[in-house]
Design brief:
The chain is of the alpha+beta class. Helices cover about 25% and strands about 25% of the residues. It folds into 2 domains: about 100 residues; about 80 residues, Regulatory factor, effector binding domain (Multidrug-efflux Transporter 1 Regulator Bmrr, Chain A). It is globular, with a radius of gyration of 18 Å. InterPro entries: Reg_factor_effector_dom_sf, SOUL_heme-bd. Belongs to the HEBP family.
């Protein structure tokens, strides 16, 4: 996998310059005040640092551990000394589940680090066997299957209150449209800290349990209302 060139000025204005998942856009909810997209996220391999490490060492400590594995800020810390291209987004998965009533959600765990952090490896890595093995035992590699997700996109800085608001809006909108979702969700952030707030891209990912065929039938009914 080759590294993608990018400039500091471009990053400041929101240009990532790195590989991103090849999403398939299934639908866009233009009928909702709280707009969202339904996407098919392709299968991938993720390198993840657990929630326990992220929380115990402080929010943000997982990033340099993962960066060390791929060789972004130092020599690669993997068994083959292979540099791996950085990708976007960085994905965080909370321990907090979505309650039966989203209005009862007390917090997301964002501010206190109760979220695991993962890098999605470049698409050229399709299996665990193809990936360099991390030298740091705190990093776990996993094969993530293709999945349908509802996605809410927003700019600015992430905080507990901002993430909670967008999560609640997405859950309410998908429920109103009749989509079947579970209790899990993820926060995806595409930009480094020095990107200007209004150029930042953040997303809430909410897995959808409907099949693609069922999903299209549900959305067709919603559009016709």
């Amino acid at each position: 996998c080759l590294r993608s060139p990018y400039t500091t000025m471009g990053i400041v204005f929101g240009v990532t310059g790195v590989e991103q998942p090849a999403f398939k856009i299934i639908a866009r909810s233009t009928w909702n005040a709280s707009a969202y997209e339904v996407r098919m996220r392709p299968a991938c391999v993720a390198a993840r640092v657990s929630t326990q490490i992220q929380s115990s060492e402080g929010n943000g400590k997982a990033f340099p551990i993962l960066a060390g594995y791929i060789g972004v800020i130092s020599a690669p810390k993997n068994d083959s000394n292979t540099s791996i291209s950085m990708t976007a987004p960085v994905v965080q998965t909370p321990t907090t589940k979505i309650p039966a009533s989203v209005n009862m959600l007390s917090g997301t765990g964002y501010d206190n680090g109760e979220m695991s952090m993962a890098f999605l490896l470049p698409a050229c890595y399709t299996t665990l066997e193809a990936c360099p093995k991390p030298m740091d035992e705190r990093i776990e590699l996993s094969e993530e299957p293709e999945c349908l997700i509802a996605v809410a996109t927003f700019s600015g800085w992430c905080s507990e209150s901002v993430v909670k608001r967008h999560l609640q809006e997405l859950v309410a909108s998908t429920a109103k449209d009749g989509l079947s979702t579970g209790t899990d969700w993820q926060l995806a952030q595409y930009n480094p800290p020095f990107t200007l707030p209004w150029f930042r891209t953040n997303e809430i990912w909410l897995p959808i349990k409907n099949s693609e065929e069922e999903l299209l039938q549900v959305l067709e009914k919603v559009v016709k209302k």
